[in-house]
Write a structure and sequence with these properties.
Layout lengths: L2 E5 L5 E8 L10 E10 L4 E6 L9 E2 L2 E4 L6 H13 L4 E10 L2 E10 L13 E7 L1 H5 L14 H9 L2
Parallel strand pairs: 3-8
Antiparallel strand pairs: 1-2, 3-6, 4-5, 4-9, 7-8
């Protein structure tokens, strides 16, 4: 059973309320989800192909991520999820926040100098990876078989274009 802390719409922790994965999040409550975009020190970006059995299976995602566990900060969640899904460690910086019903997204950029071929695939989550130049990433389609499935990433990609 995966447990999450409850937050209000302004990212404030609500003491005494615990949410559980698989159960509806009551209206007006939220849980934290971290999204992480990985940039290598050479300027390329990591994309991961989703397992065909997952939602949006077979599409590429430009982020790793997942829900923050009870007692976990957004940064700790981002570091844990990135390590689980890719084997990558690096320097994290928060680049954005977003809110949808039941979820508060905290967006991170991770800069890494790890060997690009040391990426590990998480069984049941991802089946392939590629490193793309900034131009290749920004020109990927958002629909179709070789598309990016992570729409939220496009909300903070413009800020990254200026880097």
């Amino acid at each position: 059973m995966e447990l999450w802390d409850a937050y209000d719409e302004n990212f404030n922790l609500i003491e005494g309320i615990v949410l559980e994965r698989g159960k509806p999040v009551p209206e007006g409550l939220y849980h934290i989800v971290a999204d992480i975009l990985v940039q290598h020190t050479d300027g390329s970006y990591l994309i991961m192909k989703r397992d065909p059995r997952k939602l949006f299976g077979g599409t590429w995602q430009a982020s790793a991520g997942g829900s923050a566990l009870r007692g976990e900060t957004p940064l700790a969640c981002a570091e844990r999820e990135l390590l689980e899904e890719t084997g990558i460690r690096g320097t994290m910086s928060e680049v954005g926040r977003d809110r949808v019903p039941g979820k508060l997204y905290v967006e991170f950029l991770c800069i890494t100098d790890q060997d690009k071929q040391s990426v590990t695939l998480q069984e049941g989550e991802t089946v392939d990876f590629r490193w793309l130049s900034k131009d290749e990433l920004f020109s990927m389609p958002t629909h179709g078989p070789n598309s990016l499935s992570t729409e939220r990433i496009f909300r903070f990609l413009p800020a990254l274009q200026r880097r």
